[in-house]
Amino acid sequence: xxxxxxxxxxxxxxxxxxxxxxxxxxxxxxxxxxxxxxxxxxxxxxxxxxxxxxxxxxxxxxxxxxxxxxxxxxxxxxxxxxxxxxxxxxxxxxxxxxxxxxxxxxxxxxxxxxxxxxxxxxxxxxxxxxxxxxxxxxxxxxxxxxxxxxxxxxxxxxxxxxxxxxxxxxxxxxxxxxxxxxxxxxxxxxxxxxxxxxxxxxxxxxxxxxxxxxxxxxxxxxxxxx
Length: 226
Ligand code: FPP
Prior knowledge:
Layout: E1 5-9, H1 13-19, H2 24-44, E2 49-56, H3 64-87, E3 91-95, H4 103-115, E4 124-131, H5 133-147, H6 153-157, E5 170-173, E6 192-195, H7 205-217
The structure holds farnesyl diphosphate (FPP).
């Protein structure tokens, strides 16, 4: 079965830094480098869609200094890497209520969104920012009720942030934690789950290869018989 869409829960930046007696934000900085390595590796291997959990609706409870540092990195990432991905014809999109982000970060994201080409042939890069799976479903159902249309799976799906994307074939979480933590709850119904002990800043092209190999060994039945 084709591996079209990989979704990543990027976990362990803080522990990576702590092990080296470094501040947590250095862990996040290394996490951004890992993100670039993973996006490049997935593109080279012909993966069509990748999703990343960068900031959850629950992450606001972190110290303000860490939140500020994270959004500053997101802004810089948008101005540099995301811009170059769009120039390479990738489609960059965001999921979550980004209107709650700091203004300069939101401005940088809007610049990217308006630069994305219609019908871009390249990989789709989807980034969760102020994203929560339950919030996503509630927002979609509210919009559907307001529209007066029938409550069906298809009509809910067409109001999710991932509208037009396929469901993730695989959800990967780093750092050995084995849970979804409110990530893509609707879309993960039949996803294969892969948990990797490496901390997120240690992810690289070889990790992507190991995910592709592991996926090839899984048999997906979608509730039926093989
Ligand atoms: C989890 O590690 C990571 C996060 C909450 C943030 C993920 C963000 C990035 C990789 C960088 C910013 C994103 C972009 C799009 C530029 P943790 O802090 O929970 O680690 P811990 O569990 O070891 O403390």
